[in-house]
Amino acid sequence: MLFLEHLLRDVNDVLWSRVLIAVLLGLGLWFTIKTGFVQFRYLPEMFRVIADKRTISAAGKKGTSSFQAFAISAASRVGTGNMAGVAAAIAAGGPGAVLWMWIIALLGSASGFVESTLAQVYKVPHEDQYRGGPAYYMEKGLKSRWLAVLFAITITFTYGLVFNSVQSNTISLAFENQFAIDSEVIAIILFVFTAIVIFGGLKSIANVTQIIVPVMAILYILLAIYILITNITAIPDMLTYIVSNAFGIREVAGGGFGAAIMMGIKRGLFSNEAGMGSAPNAAATAEVTHPAKQGLIQALGVFFDTILICSATAFVIITAGGFEGSKADGIQLTQNAFTFHIGDWAGGFIAIAILLFAYSSILGNYYYGETNITYIRDSKVGLFLYRIGALLMVAFGAIASFDFVWSLADLTMAIMALINLYAIARLFKIANQVLQDYRRQRKAGKDPVFYRDVLDDQEGIEYWDREQAEHSK
């Protein structure tokens, strides 16, 4: 196992430093400029559309709302990355990693807008809901079934299996650190409770996550704000420390990039997922009158994740100090920082918080895999086997090593992101035409409604004709 860990780490260093970082930053900047800085200019609009009430499904029933779709994607975003990932990034890359997390979020939110808008454009009715995501726009937009299947397999493996092992690993470390509970016990508990929810279907996932995620995020942020207020005089020095450290020359094994850049972008992408192809699977399920609405909502999710929650964690850890040379793994470093600031009880609070955050992420991750399993082949047997595999990986993650599950996650995440970024770069023209249509209607004072006949290329778009769009008014 140790040999495999070293091999994964070496492969990741080469793949990330020589390929993925340049692609993520380059495309994020290109999307930002070509869309007219959509993620900044339309920030107020994001809050308006998230409350859209028109949610009639393809079968004429109440469908998944914009907020529910946001909650499903947030369930995967908000979790281990915000608490354990940030801590690991700071420990390995120094405080400068935080600045690179901000940069990848600010640029990546444009990528998030593009991918989720495309997911809406190419969605298809499925029973009384919708299915969609990268696999759908790769096949229908790029007319590449083989690429779509490759992505579907990759995201199913990455999210339903590997990422869920990271989530359960973090829960296990937190409870072992705080309550001395054996990892085997945590594995059994997570297996049972995850099985109860995932066999209940999508609606149960949406109902659970839209309650857990906002409440815990608010509590967590408020506690972090309290810590910052009590350490207000340290903030200017902390910000200076972050910026100056971001351009340091510390190296990582096997690569040529500074540790701050490498770890900041790695953990930033793991946390906010912008451009990775995960959030579009949830975005496609929403019933909205215009695809750009879900693009804006998912772009907001990137800000919500990184600028708010990741920053809160980072500030608490940096002001506590003690992260350099620490032997604590991920979430344990966060627990130690909160305990330093406000007492021993904080370690228990973090353990409970990460349980709820990571558990909601497990549910959101599972759904991404389910969507793509159904895309490859709508088979009850295949779906059942996937569910069993997902549950086994949840149990495995709870007893596996920290380094192994994170290294495996870095590799599968990189492959998945490269496939999706290639696709959305080629389909960007469609997404940009949708955005221009949205702008024209908002400028005219309308609540935008989209029809596919405004596009130059309508091939592969099954929904959005004028008769279907009238149902969502």
Q: Can you walk through the features of this model?
A:
The chain is mainly alpha-helical. It contains 20 helices and two strands. It has helices at 2-34, 38-41, 43-49, 66-77, 80-93, 96-121, 134-140, 145-179, 183-198, 202-230, 235-246, 259-272, 279-283, 291-320, 331-342, 345-376, 380-399, 402-426, 428-443, 466-470; strands at residues 124-126, 129-131.
CATH C-level class is: Mainly Alpha
According to CATH, what is the topology? Amino acid/polyamine transporter I
Q: Mean of the pLDDT scores?
A: 83
- Count the DSSP helices: 20
Please tell me the total number of domains. Answer: 1
Helix content: over 70%
Please tally the β strands and state the result: 2
Largest sheet: 2 strands, antiparallel
Read across the widest sheet, the strand sequence of neighbours is 1-2
Order of helices and strands: HHHHHHEEHHHHHHHHHHHHHH
Structural class: mainly alpha
Q: What best-fitting shape do the alpha-carbon axes yield?
A: globular
- Give the strand content: under 5%
Subcellular location: Cell membrane
Pfam families: Na_Ala_symp
Family: Belongs to the alanine or glycine:cation symporter (AGCS) (TC 2.A.25) family.
Protein name: Amino-acid carrier protein AlsT
